[in-house]
Every structure is written in C-alpha cells, then in structure tokens.
C-alpha cells in the first residue's frame, strides 16, 4: 500500500516523535518473590539491592519485586530485612529482553549479623521465551576457538552457511538478517548481499543475541533473523589487556593448493588491546579496544608471467598468424615459446590485506537516574587480492582501500523504578576506493610505466596484464546513514511491561564511476597493416612494433584511452539516492506467573525520493522522458507479532509464535540505474531499477518445547514454517518499438519448513556444551534476484516463437537438509580449558549438466543434484598462569583440525570439485591443445583451489590481562 500525498507523510512525524524513539532491546530485568522460610508467607518491604550499583527495589504487599533496565551480565544481589538473615545471591545472569526469575527465602535471624550466600544457577528452561533466541556472553566467546562474530553465529541452530560463506537464517536469503549494536540498526541496506555497515570485533561484545525465527515488534527491516550486539559496560576499576597471536596453514593438500607446504609462523598475525576504567570517580568512565589484523591466504600464486608478457604474447600471436598464414589452420593452436614467459617462479599469497579497527566508548553518569554514552567505531583496511585468473601472473593488482567511522550517542533516563526511556542518535559512514594507478597513466609502449593497454590470456589465466586506474573521485562512493531511535519502557505492574517507540533513518548513498574507455583509433590501429609479420622474423617484428607504439600518439594525433563525453550517459555514473525510512511500534510483555504473552504491532514506512516509469512499454526513446516519469509513492506496512509461552510441567515449557515480517528490497537493485533519456541502442539489454518496489514479505510460524531432562541437561525442540512472497526478481520488457530491457519486480516466492532439536549441558564440574540438529526444506522460485528463466514456445504452426517467464518451486541454493553443530568446553575456570566446535551438513544443491554437450531443460534439472557433504572441527586449548600481578594466557587455536577441505563449488558434469568429467575424445582433444599451446598442464587447468574451503590453520598466541 502507498500514501500518495506528501502531506500525509509529514503529518505522521509529530505523532511518531511524541511516541518517543525506537530502540531495540539492550537490557533485561530481574524479578521474583520473597517469602518467609518457615511459613512460606510473602514478605513485604524487603530490600533487594544490586551490589556495586545504586539499583534495587522493595517487595510489595505480595512479596514481589522487579528491577528493570539492567544491562546484560552477571550481578550479585543482597536481600535484607530487619529480623531476618541477610541473603547474598551471586552470579545472577541477566540477558537482553529476558526476565531472570530469582525467588528468595528469608529465615529468621538466630545469630546477629548472620548471612546466607547463594550461587545462582542459570535455569535450563527459559519459561519466558516465546521465540528461538540464543545468547552468547563474553566469557563463552573467550573460551571458544573463534576469531570473528560470524563464526559464533554459524554455530546456532537454523543457520546455514552458503557456498560463498554467506549466512542464511531458516532458509531465507542472506540479506534478510538485521544487525544491531546496542539496539541501533547497523544493517547494510544498499547491498543485495546485506551484511553490516560496522565492523564488530569479539572484544567489544558483552552479549550476543541471535534470533533465528520470529521476533518482537521492536525489530524491523528483517525477515529471517536478528543479530543484536550489546557492547561492554564501563568498569569501576581499571582493567585492560593485550593479546597477540600468529600462525599459518599446516596442511598436506599440496595437490590442490600452491605453496601450502611453505610454512611461515607469522603468515597471519593479530594484535588486540583493550582498556577500561574510570576517568572521574564513578561519574565518567571509558572503554577502548584496538585490533590490527593481517590474515593469511591459502590461495597462492606461482609467478610464471610478468605484466609485460601479456603484451608480448599478444603480439607474438599476431605475428605467428601472419607469418604462418598457410599453416595456421593445420596447426590448430599457436605454440607459445618458453622465452616469452619471464616470471621467476616465486611463490606467494594471492591475497594480502591489513585491517585496523578501533572502538572507543565514553559513559557519563551524573546521577543514578541518568546515563549518557558516546561510542565511536572506526576502521581502516588495505588489501590486494587477485582472483583465480591471476594464479600465474600476480603482479600489478589494484589496491583496495576502505574507511569507515560510526558514531552512536545514547541518553537513558530512569524516571522511576518502573519507567525509563532511551534517546539515540547515530551517524554511520562508509567509503572506499580501488586503483592500480591513481594518475590513470596509460603505458605508451612495452616497458613504459602505466596501465597496460594490451594483455593476453589462456585457459582463463592471465598471461600478463595490469589492473585499471582510479575511476572514482574524492568525496564520492560513500554510504551515509543518519538514525534517530529510542524507546519508552514501562513496567505498569507485576504483569505488564509496555514498550513503544519509533525510528527514522535517512540514507544518503553515492555511486560514482568515471572510467577511461578505449578510443576508436586505438581499437582500429592497435596493430598496423604496414608491418606484416609474414615479412619479418619474430625479433624484427617485435622491434618494429615497439617503435610503432612509441610513436603512436604523434602518428594518429590522439590517445589510446579517453574519458566519456557528457552525452555518453551509459558510460559513466554519478548517482546519489536519499531514501527515507521510519517505523513505529508498540508491544506488551504480559507475565502471568509462568505464562508469558508477547504481543505487538509495527508500522514501517518507506519514502523512495525517486521517480519511476509510468508506461514501461512506451517508445524506447521516451522511456526516461519527464512526461513518462512520476514520483514513487510512499510504501507502508503493518506487521502484527505474537508469542506465547506456558509451562507444561515444573521442568518444561511450550511456546508458539507467529508474525508478519517486511523488508524493503536492496537499494542496489531498487536504484540500479538513474532514470534518464536513452537511445534505443543505449536501452537495449539495460538493467533498470524500480523505486516503487513493494516490501518483501515473510509470514513465519513456530512451535517449540523446552524440557529439562536432569539438573544438567535440557532438550529444545522447535518446529517452524515460513512463507515468503514479493521476493525480488527481474522481468524482461519489450517496448513498442521492439527494444528489450529488464527491470526489477516483486515476483519470487517460496517456503521453508523444518525443525531444530538441541541438547544443552550446563557446566557442572568440568564439562559444558551443546549439540543441535536442523532439518529443513528451503524451496522457492529463484535463489537470486537476478535469475530469469525464459521458455520459448511457438505461438502457432509457422508462427513466431513467444517467450515467457518460467517459474517453479525448486530447492534454493542453500537448501541444506541436515545440519549438526557441536560445542564442547572442558575447563577449570581461571586455570585451563579445552574447547571444540564442530559442524556437519548434507550437500547443497547444484544443477547438473551432461558430458555429452546436450543441454537439458533447466525446468527439469535445476538444483536437482547434491554436492558432497561438508564437515569441520576446530579446537582451542588455553592455559592461565600468573606473572606477578598479571593474569597471563597461553593459547593454541587449530581451525580445521583434521585438514578436511570441503567442496564449495563443483563441476556440474561430475558433482565434484576434483573431477572435470568429459567424454574421452573431448579430453584427448583438450589435452592435445594444451600441450600444443605449451603454457599449462591439464591438471593445472582442472584444479580450482578457490572452490574449496581453507585447509588446517594453526595459531599460537599469548595474552596478558590486568
């Protein structure tokens, strides 16, 4: 639905502002009942305090107490009343959006000053949980063999890792996950692959909340899941530490990976430091982290060719063709002499990167009721990365630079013990650039400095080339996001916790490209007919051509490359978009004893601030004219959310949840091209965006059961179903003058169904851990927004064929039917620990093809076969020791313990990455051609290292904390 008039949009703002500001969950609460030990009667007026803070409550006439607005973490509680022994409860764990129940029994004081100390135990069954949510705290993160947040998320039930490392929550597309930091959205709305704007290091995480199913109304712009990071709080005392580790791949997979047996203990290195403490008493404090990381690459090169070799080899092919004109058809392939390959054979990593991330947080607490915090997260990265084509010619790569700075300002006011609100401001900024030569200088002749205008390749490998120049511009190619967000929270009584708020997001995104393009003269006169290879030997021909290229500018009075002209609108780009989003929600958490009901309603609005085509089939030259454009209408959507949890016994709870979830398509597709007047030639085959796309929609259901088996073990079973509609796809359009282009529409659909089964063991003694199993079907009409299947049929006998779009429900590319995750920690806290994580999954689908060369219809064979199963184990061993007053930690991480490399991609003729199936006669022809060319062996051409996951990595490190 859409609001057509701008006035209707504007009139909503006062209402939304009055409702306060949207702010996702960052706190939890503790509640319970205090009773008298002998009689079981309620005790009113009991003081319940949180040690180390000024937070607390007094029990009401029925003995109930509630302490809200508590950041996640462990707390110590003191419960006291005149005439009764004081009770201290330690290690009370609070999590985001959760109610920690802690009932207390007081005994009459027999000995003056008597105190009872109790250690709280986390309940195995969370009876107030109405959806599938996982919590990972900072202590657990430190124990696990993980170095990034993604590795933690991958371990959760219902999360599937795709072939390219992307995450899919319960069968959804990768961009259907929302990322939050301290309750503020940090999702990348521009990219079709989604992700986050802000780098999140493990060192800043106090608690990681992962919702893989339905979620409350406070969360929006997501269809499949939420990743909410709560950063660490300020410490009252100084705490800090430094950690360093380094390592390299240790593998015997020498048949697959070049140079994998070349061991360098510091091929990968990582330095991290953190410091936290007070600045001015308990009023002002800080928290800061920094990480410098240089990862190792398991994809290596062997330098057989230098950049200039491509120029030489291309000229040699030209000379050979002219010199042997009568024999060329008999020879079949041109043999390249070894002398033209000038590489030194050196080995090295194909990717080199460095990244610096820094986080700073200031917190000001002028009174017990007010808290003001400012957080800055900044990053800088520099990398060079060659794709598989550069395996044997790795030089002259482009350097990629990335910069980001993100600012978060939060104001929290506890008005009463039962009411508080948050106000939030955020500015997020990302930009980058990439180039080989920033001055865009083109080499005038072989050996001259600059971007090489002539290159060559064979068997998809570069034989010599350089990357391009700087097509950007200072102040361009950025993503900026301005957010105002927050909420109001009111514990009305012992049963109702009301939350309401709104969010406003203003995007400003620029994409810029002003590249050099080849001139017509260079295309035509790159080689001159005045120098015929038939008349010269190769060395004579080469020397003549070098002289020719040196004088080329003077000869033709022009350049080899030029910048686009103003009317060549399809050859350059400077496009700024300014979409505006807003949302409002209200929800209630109703707790009636052990029965919990979460209900809410969310309103999302989206204003494109762009024009759209009125008549998409009008004459091609009129498509982008002002008379055929109108302002895109504002989209709005209501999303009801519901969740219910109730006990089925004193050790079990049942929950059911339902919700509608909406998300606007990626801006990358909605605004893929600026609408402008194009000629028929310019429009033909063009991909156009559509700023009036509807929100993508998911309706999700889940039913779950938690059951405590023993005091140490609990099982969790959840059955889920999702139906998704209005997914992004493309449509082919033909204008009345028979010019065909494509644009994005809401066309794809599908469904996901399955269940998760998890077994958890609490830490009692040395061992803790969990194992979970996910079974699911993920099916839909398309896995990619850019997929289109055209089926051609005859309109009638002798008539012209008609094309239409074929749509059918098939397994999605990430349809992994069976997934198992294992986490186990064997530890003696503060002394030593050994932890392992493991995963296994059935093969992902692919579309098989026939070795015969006959093409079977995709409608029958699309995603009908399966790749090999995937599995992996990582391990971490850690030992603490004291050095004076310092806590020192020595640790070893081993990723891919058993050195098993999974096959991410496969040959479609065999279903394996290590087997390029061909007919014997075709293989003989192919191998004969390779031998004749004299550049690459058949096994080098067939080997695709990039199709495999990384081999075994060993990291050794040392940390010091104080």
Features:
five-stranded mixed beta sheet; mainly beta; 22-stranded antiparallel barrel; disordered N terminus; 962 residues
Describe this structure in words.
This protein is mainly β. Helix content is 10%, strand content 47%. It contains 13 helices and 54 strands. The strands form eleven sheets. The protein has a 22-stranded antiparallel β-barrel. Strand 6 and strand 7 form a beta hairpin. Helix 4 crosses helix 7. The radius of gyration is 32 Å and the shape is globular.
- Helix and strand content put the structural class at mainly beta
The largest pleated sheet is described as:
22 strands, antiparallel, barrel
What ranges have pLDDT less than 50 throughout 5 or more consecutive residues? Answer: 1-23, 790-804
* Total beta strand runs: 54
Query: How many helices in DSSP terms?
Result: 13
Question: How would you sum up this structure in a few lines?
Answer:
It is built from 13 helices and 54 strands.
Topology of this structure?
Blueprint: E1 2-3, H1 6-18, E2 28-36, E3 47-50, E4 56-58, E5 64-70, E6 73-80, E7 86-94, E8 99-101, E9 104-106, E10 115-119, E11 133-137, H2 138-143, H3 149-153, E12 159-161, E13 167-169, E14 177-181, E15 184-185, E16 205-211, E17 225-231, E18 239-249, E19 268-280, E20 284-294, E21 300-302, H4 307-323, H5 328-331, E22 347-349, E23 351-367, E24 370-385, E25 399-416, E26 419-435, E27 456-458, E28 461-464, E29 478-491, E30 496-513, E31 517-518, H6 520-525, H7 538-550, H8 552-556, E32 561-562, E33 573-577, E34 580-592, E35 595-607, E36 611-613, E37 629-631, E38 634-649, E39 652-663, H9 667-670, H10 680-683, E40 687-688, E41 696-708, E42 713-734, E43 740-764, E44 767-780, E45 790-794, E46 801-805, E47 810-811, E48 818-828, E49 832-841, E50 845-846, H11 858-861, E51 865-866, E52 870-883, E53 886-895, H12 920-933, H13 938-942, E54 953-961
Parallel strand pairs: 2-8, 2-9, 7-10, 14-17, 40-43
Antiparallel strand pairs: 1-38, 2-5, 3-4, 3-6, 6-7, 11-16, 12-13, 14-15, 16-17, 18-19, 18-54, 19-20, 20-23, 21-22, 23-24, 24-25, 25-26, 26-29, 27-28, 29-30, 30-33, 30-34, 31-32, 34-35, 35-38, 36-37, 38-39, 39-41, 41-42, 42-43, 43-44, 44-47, 44-48, 45-46, 48-49, 49-52, 50-51, 52-53, 53-54
Helix pairs in contact: 4-7
